[in-house]
Amino acid sequence: MEMRELRPGDAARCAELEKILFPDENPWSENVFMVEFAHPHTFYLGAFEQDGDAEGQLLGYAGMAMLGPRDDPEFEIHTIGVDPGHQRRGIARLLMDNLMLVADNFDAQVFLEVRTDNEPAIAMYERYGFTNQGIRRNYYQPSGADAYTMSRPSRSER
Ligand SMILES: CC(C)(COP(=O)(O)OP(=O)(O)OC[C@H]1O[C@@H](n2cnc3c(N)ncnc32)[C@H](O)[C@@H]1OP(=O)(O)O)[C@@H](O)C(=O)NCCC(=O)NCCS
């Protein structure tokens, strides 16, 4: 597996995976990914299959945004997804390890929203020290599904 920061040329594949992974939730388009990658305070990472010496297909992606002042920021996970044919192989863990390293380097708290019925993702976030902070009703559209807000304390608060 190869990891690197995502760039505009990866947006179409991200959008393709989103359509498969979030069919009920207004999956992000290629254009939305382009805007996200270009934002100065976001960090998007991809996990790529290796194809000999060449870079293979994008199998997983994750991104988060830095909010607030640079000397005391918070982070918010915007999205994470892994190709259904390659799940449960530790790809999300690789992505999360890197995102959490960035947050810990800033000694920052991390927030996210997750569907209340998304057991795999909730289990993963709990393994990273996220805890449930409350429920946001009808957070996801058009499904109307509820979300939990979860947060992970900064390194110094853990
Ligand atoms: C959640 C998701 C990103 C996990 O990706 P993955 O590459 O399969 O995850 P990993 O193999 O790295 O597993 C990481 C941890 O997640 C949890 N996990 C992942 N899949 C799980 C499942 N089906 N059931 C229970 N726990 C699961 C486990 O705690 C796992 O750690 P372990 O393997 O040591 O037990 C993937 O299921 C996915 O893309 N889901 C659809 C998109 C989504 O819901 N994203 C989150 C939006 S908030």
Q: Main attributes?
A:
7 strands, Aminopeptidase, alpha+beta, 158 residues, binds coenzyme A
Could you explain the architecture of this structure?
This protein has helices spanning 11-21, 30-38, 91-105, 119-127, and strands at residues 2-5, 42-51, 54-67, 74-82, 109-115, 131-136, 147-152. The chain is α+β, with helices and mostly antiparallel strands. It has one domain (2-157): Aminopeptidase, CATH 3.40.630.30. A 7-stranded mixed beta sheet has the order 1-2-3-4-5-7-6, with helices on both faces. The chain starts with a strand and ends in a 6-residue tail after the last strand. The relative contact order is 0.15. The chain binds coenzyme A. Coenzyme A is lined by residues 21, 80-82, 87-93, 114, 118-121, 123-124, 127.
Large-scale geometry: globular
**CATH fold assignment:** Aminopeptidase
| Architecture (CATH level 2) name | 3-Layer(aba) Sandwich
Q: Can you write the helix and strand succession as a string? A: EHHEEEHEHEE
Could you state the CATH homologous superfamily?
A: Gcn5-related N-acetyltransferase (GNAT)
Number of strands: 7
Rounded to an integer, what's the Rg over CA atoms?
A: 15 Å
Instruction: Describe the main β-sheet briefly.
Output: 7 strands, mixed
Structural class: alpha+beta
The average pLDDT score comes to 96
Strand order of the largest sheet: 1-2-3-4-5-7-6
